[in-house]
Amino acid sequence: MVKINQSISIYIFILLNLSCLLFVAVATTTPVHLNSEFENININNNNNNNNNDNNNFYYTYDNYVTTQYKSNTHPLKLKSNSDRSSSSSSSSKKDKPTTGSSSDDDDVAIFKIVQITDTHFGEGEGTDWGPEQDANSTRVMETILALEQPDLVVFTGDLITGNNIINNSTDYWKMAVGVAMKMGIPWATVFGNHDDLASGVNGTKFDLLEYDISLGSYSQFGPNNIPGVSNYYIPIYDKWTNDIEVVLWMFDSGDGECPRFPKEEKEKEKKPNQNQQEKEKVEWMDPSRITSSSSSDNVPYLCNFYITGNQVLWYYQTAKELYAGADNLPLAFAYFHVPIRQYMWVWNQQTCYGSNNDSVACQAVDGGLYYAFESIGDVKMVSVGHNHGNDYCGLFGSVELCYGRHSGYGGYGTWERGARVIQVTKQKGGPISYDTWLTFETGERLYHQPPHHPDPSHPQQSCTS
Ligand SMILES: *[C@@H]1O[C@H](CO)[C@@H](O)[C@H](O)[C@H]1NC(C)=O
Ligand SMILES: *[C@@H]1O[C@H](CO)[C@@H](O)[C@H](O)[C@H]1NC(C)=O
Ligand SMILES: *[C@@H]1O[C@H](CO)[C@@H](O)[C@H](O)[C@H]1NC(C)=O
Ligand SMILES: *[C@@H]1O[C@H](CO)[C@@H](O)[C@H](O)[C@H]1NC(C)=O
Ligand SMILES: CC(=O)N[C@H]1CO[C@H](CO)[C@@H](O)[C@@H]1O
To answer: Which domain holds residue 180?
Structure first.
């Protein structure tokens, strides 16, 4: 690993906090090189005898894209009730609240997403309570997915507790996504901080994503040269025009282990009392240490401990390209695991809806994602996991920041398990809108979460860890 010295770390920190300014630069200059995190990192150094850290390398995201793993490409589309009843006889209309009041089933199309978060399968491997806990999490998903019959399930991280798993991470991964898989419901995943900490084989993020894709998911490998692995987007198409109506932006919020390092390798790198400064750096990965079975893919992935400026730049540029020439921006949502710090600010400053029974354990550094959302203007709602006691939504600027609902019996907390649902509704030729609610394992739905007004005497000052 290349050591980034402290002065450079501070420099990086300052640059990242100037991300607003960087976006102004992004908007006005081409080509774009946001290289601050990668200065003094020599990407092509496979030769250990030539360990020169001082070659500047300008790293742009569009150099390398992993293509050998074929995600599910069957297009996801908004569907009308008649599309549903012809494809599935069990789907009952009364379970699907619609915002439209159209008398014609074919004039309204809907897309429903259930967010499952923090199931923590495998937490109790080798215990007597572990299998029961996992069976409980499976039951929660079975209940909620049978009730909601969504068009997509998004898993927002901590599907497994990798750090407690000895050998078979992929088996637990399959338990997590298996309910959706068995029910024939499309699914996609992003990583949390516990998904890649397993010992032994098949436990790295790279392995898990490869496995997830092999099972038929809509997950994708992000570009190889931006930090993290699960950085991608999913387009959802209009039923009538085939235009992209909805975009889901998926981000790898990092932490845990590095994408391709098994735990044993990474343990050697860990220092006691890893301080904030060290956490803020982006680490280099030496391809010679990759032990994944997929090491034929010759470009490494980088570690990350938050959503970095380069991931933000990837979003910004990809969105610009995707939307170039479009009359209207699609409606977009973003999913990731660890909240950005605007979650803390929105609870401090705005009336929010729902509970904050944890503090907000937000990302230690702001890579500028929120400002990029505002700048592009497509993302109207973000939903995360990570803090099991939190399920609130609050409007910060023009972006609704929401938590999902702890879905698993794994992980801390005994708050009633549930899931957040987002339902998009479009009238034929008309506007598109969305609703969100919580559905619990009891089958109850909560459409209007209780308001919480800001308490200026007790603001949360910084992200808890
Ligand atoms: C499993 O769920 C049942 C019913 O909610 C509960 O009583 C039990 O304690 C749970 N067991 C574990 C290990 O989570
Ligand atoms: C894990 O795998 C290793 C090597 O394949 C094996 O020696 C060990 O017995 C396994 N442990 C468990 C708990 O299955
Ligand atoms: C690792 O994954 C491969 C391919 O998915 C599988 O054949 C193998 O059994 C897995 N190994 C373990 C120990 O789970
Ligand atoms: C994973 O391995 C452990 C230890 O061998 C075993 O007890 C457990 O049943 C396995 N889990 C699955 C899902 O196969
Ligand atoms: C167990 C617990 O602390 N519950 C609280 C969670 O947050 C809601 C909303 O702020 C409170 O009403 C609960 O008492």
So the answer is: 108-258+270-293+301-452
